[in-house]
Amino acid sequence: MVDSLFQIKNQNPKHTIVTGDRGVGKSSLLMQIQLTSNGVNSLTDRFKIDRGVDKFNFLSVWHDVDATQNAFDLALAILGKFESAFKKFLSGFSLEIDLAGFGKLGRDKQNPINISSLIDEFVVRIGKVAEGAEKNKKDGVLIFIDELDRIKPDSMISSFFKLTSERLARDGIKRVGFVCAGITGAVQKLEEEHASILRTFRDVPLPRFAKEESALILKEGFGKANHKCSMPNFEDRVLEVTMGLPEPIHLLGSEMLSVDIDGILLEDDFENAIKKIVSDVRKNKLASLLRKAGGGKYQKIVEAIAKHDKKIVPLEFIAKVIGQEQSQFSTNMATLVDREIIFKPAIGHYAFTDPMLKEYVKMNGVLTLDE
Ligand SMILES: Nc1ncnc2c1ncn2[C@@H]1O[C@H](COP(=O)(O)OP(=O)(O)OP(=O)(O)O)[C@@H](O)[C@H]1O
Ligand SMILES: [Mg+2]
User: Fold this and answer.
1) Cα-based distances in Å from 220 to 187, 207, 224, 227
2) Which of 109, 138, 236, 247 has its CB surrounded by the most CB atoms within 10 Å?
């Protein structure tokens, strides 16, 4: 991603899209890249990443898309944010992009504008933004877009990206880059249904931490706090309860330290930390997550997923436990994914988005709610 900043500065635009599971750290990475693009070097210095320049100096805006937005709404939001960015950061320089004129394009709900005139109007204005940025000695213009997985397939946003990036290249507007993030499965789904995002965008997959990495992060942290971990089977157990996600790893580590009394971390500290997380620190969040899953069959499915000895659970196992054919509850599975209770890390496999939900259900059972 740092390389793509360098390339954009050097008029060789590379658009990127960070993809990964829920909670893996996509937004955090995007935020770090925005900081880097604004001349903050802490991340690149810490990881000894060669930036190719002393520091970057881009003009950027950030937008979180949501399910109600279409390509026009997105384009209008981006332009609006650039207008305020100019006011804020480049005082004394006014940007004439006729935002109001652009806004009028989308006013007539009976006659929605077609995608090619939308692109025409957007690219002209972005060109002016890029010109203004250049006059102000900026490295270029970056458009950060998070939560890309929330967009609807009929929003035309996928085509908007593809056509805009091609058009920018054709018009010689080379110092403009999109930097996006979205959940893996959802982005691939857009890919199937619409113009190929991944052909114009460089995919930066952000994987969950591997078993050894998760354990190493914790052990290094313990070392810094003058604790030693002598728990047998530590690596496997850590992966099992955290799924290699940064936030649960952090939580587990800090709670293990908080329950320990003798500086030596063992099985009981691990178990006590989990107990504390599900019955205290995270109790309310997990309880509301369980309610959000829904009643009746939904609770049975949640219970089945919690019962499996691994975090990633094959559909056949769920079918066996609840005693139904897969086709009888496939829509329930899709609903649980929509409600963000579970995600689908592989075809025919499911896991809780919050890995601690499994520990919570194992300890407290499920709810008896009507559907
Ligand atoms: N490298 C990291 N080290 C420690 N904690 C991290 C790291 N990256 C992210 N986190 C923490 O993990 C949590 C999830 O991160 P973040 O929101 O960036 O993930 P995400 O992939 O954008 O999630 P979502 O799919 O919900 O949008 C946050 O609490 C964040 O502070
Ligand atoms: Mg995010």
Assistant:
1) 34, 21, 6, 10
2) 138
